[in-house]
Amino acid sequence: MKILFTRSIQSPLLELIPKEYEVVMWKEENRVMPRKELLKEVADADAIFTNLTDQLDAEFFEHAKKLKIVSTMAVGFDNIDVQEATKRGIPVGHTPDVLSEAVAELAFTLMFACARRVFESMQFIKENKWESWGPYLFAGQKISGAKLGIIGMGRIGRILAKQAKALNMEVVYTNRRPNPQTEAELNVEYRELEVLLKESDYVVMLAPASNETYHMMGYEQFALMKPTSIFVNVSRGTTVDEEALHQILVEKKIFAAGLDVFEVEPIHPNHPLLSLENVIAVPHIGSATKETRDKMVEIAVINILNGLKGNRLLHTVNEEVYQ
Ligand code: GLV
Asked: Taking CA 40 as the corner, what is the angle to CA 38 and CA 43, rounded to the nearest 5 degrees?
């Protein structure tokens, strides 16, 4: 059996891999395995440990003649043609739940940093502009008691809502359909997107990337938000029309945006959004705590080992392969 790791992974869990298996690993830590190399190496691989930067499209699956398991170290799987995998009877494993708290915490990090203008303030100090305490110097927005609007109420949304309740926030959400059980459990209310945008002081995007969610936040939607409101995206960049977001921020029709994800990653350093004072951008680090990443690696490795033994994965995206 050959397991292809498209990223350099150091973990004691690799000891669990039977000695007779061959492990091929891309060694450059923060660089994507080149496409040519990926297609070559997957040709005789039985399993692949992948991540959101690999495109597992129809062409990939055509090359992957022996592939039995796809295991992605991520909750999102929009980079994988799941239909193609299912057609070939390949289960696709992913790593939900273990990252929900970390991603929700990053959403809060961005909310707080935007609300209290943390980076602008630090820049101000570094540029030697701080002369004295000022009555309204860097006056921002408050979070406690404010209204949070969550777009996409899944696993991460539910954790975010719980955390928000600790700050006495009112929480509304929008989703493909309302979820009365979540509403009862978490004391949150469903809203149509337009209503949520008008009402909320903080809007957090958590909807996954799909044809349905592509550019779901465009100029028209951003224009419904309040000039004091803050938009945060910790989901996927394609849910947002970045040109529209840029324009809305320039027009000061919303207060600020905190972005972990971008339409094209890595975002170009000269991208217009990055020149704005009211944008805080981080490089897709939603789940990046050491503890969380360890757990993601653990699940992704176990998914492969289970799958190669003919057992069910811990979390399968396409359960229908088992029918
Ligand atoms: C990260 O974006 C993930 O999908 O886990």
From this structure: 100
Contacts of 167 (CB under 8 A, 6+ apart): 143, 144, 145
The distance of Cα 277 from the centroid of its chain, to the nearest Å, equals 23
For 94, phi then psi, to 5°, come to -140, -175
Q: Report the separation in Å between the CA atom of 74 and the middle of ligand 1, taken as the mean of its atom positions.
A: 4
> Are 250 and 278 spatial neighbours (Cβ–Cβ below 8 Å)?
no
Would you name the residues annotated as active-site residues?
A: 236, 265, 284
Angstrom distance (rounded) from CA 207 to CA 174: 9
Provide the pLDDT for residue 111. 98
Structure tokens at 106: 């990053």
Residue 124 Cα, ligand 1 centroid: separation in angstroms?
Answer: 33
Nearest atom in ligand 1 to the alpha carbon of residue 296 is 5
Residue 158 has a pLDDT of: 98
pLDDT, tens digit, 9 for 90 and up, residues 56-94: 999 999 999 999 999 999 999 999 999 999 999 999 999
Q: CA 3, CA 213: separation in Å to the nearest integer? A: 33
pLDDT < 50 regions, the chain: none
State pLDDT tens for residues 243-296.
999 999 999 999 999 999 999 999 999 999 999 999 999 999 999 999 999 999
Q: Which residues, judged by CB distance below 6 Å to any ligand atom, belong to the binding site of ligand 1? A: 52, 74-76, 99, 286-287
CA distances, 50 to each of 12, 297, 311 (Å): 18, 10, 19
Q: How far is the CA of 193 from the centre of ligand 1 (A)?
A: 23
Q: Is 134 left (phi over 0), alpha (psi -120 to 50) or beta?
A: beta
Of all atoms in ligand 1, which is nearest to the CA of residue 261? 2
